[in-house]
């Protein structure tokens, strides 16, 4: 088989991957995480193609450093956003869950792109949806 034929075969197999397959992979990875942490309600991450990259080509990427747990991002949440000891409990949960997501971040970006741009949110019932996300 020629190199071109091999490349064409790979391209065809990649085209057969759709958002449903990607969603199922995410659900399989996150089901045990939700089972392990009963106070975990949602996990979210932004993914998009940058608008501008200092003249270099822009690429689609996932932004794991903007991980959201239960609707809050570690970089933007403030202790007074929550009541009482909720902040300390949330921060402990965020750190624990973050360490569990290595397999999720191993899904190739080319497949996660099938879900589209925005904030991908997975809820406790393993429903996966994409919300608008402003990344300016």
Count of separate structural domains: 1
> What is the N-to-C succession of helices and strands?
HHEEEEHHHEE
Report how far apart the termini are.
46 Å
Total helices: the number is: 5
The counted number of beta strands is 6
Q: Detail the poorly predicted runs.
A: none
Mean of residue pLDDT? 88
Overview of the molecule:
This protein has 136 residues and is α+β, with helices and mostly antiparallel strands. Helices cover 40% and strands 18% of the residues. Strands 1, 2, 3, 4, 5 and 6 form a six-stranded antiparallel sheet that branches. A hairpin with a 2-residue loop joins strand 3 and strand 4. The chain is globular and about 65 Å long.
Concise overview:
This protein has five helices and six strands; from the N terminus they run ααββββαααββ.
Topology, pairings included?
Layout: H1 3-15, H2 19-36, E1 42-49, E2 60-62, E3 68-69, E4 72-73, H3 86-100, H4 102-105, H5 109-112, E5 118-123, E6 128-131
Antiparallel strand pairs: 1-2, 1-3, 1-5, 3-4, 5-6
Based on the model shown, name its key terms.
about 140 residues, alpha+beta, six-stranded antiparallel β-sheet, 6 strands
């Amino acid at each position: 088989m020629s190199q071109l034929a091999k490349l064409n075969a790979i391209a065809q197999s990649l085209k057969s991957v759709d958002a449903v397959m990607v969603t199922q992979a995410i659900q399989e990875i996150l089901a045990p995480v939700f089972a392990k942490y009963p106070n975990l309600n949602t996990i979210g991450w932004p993914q998009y193609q940058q608008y501008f990259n200092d003249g270099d080509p822009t690429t689609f990427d996932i932004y794991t450093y903007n991980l959201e747990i239960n609707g809050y991002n570690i970089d933007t949440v403030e202790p007074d956003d929550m009541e009482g000891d909720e902040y300390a409990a949330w921060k402990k949960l965020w750190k624990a869950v973050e360490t569990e997501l290595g397999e999720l971040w191993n899904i190739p970006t080319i497949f996660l792109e099938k879900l589209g741009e925005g904030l991908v949110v997975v809820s406790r019932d393993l429903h996966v949806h994409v919300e608008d996300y402003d990344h300016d």
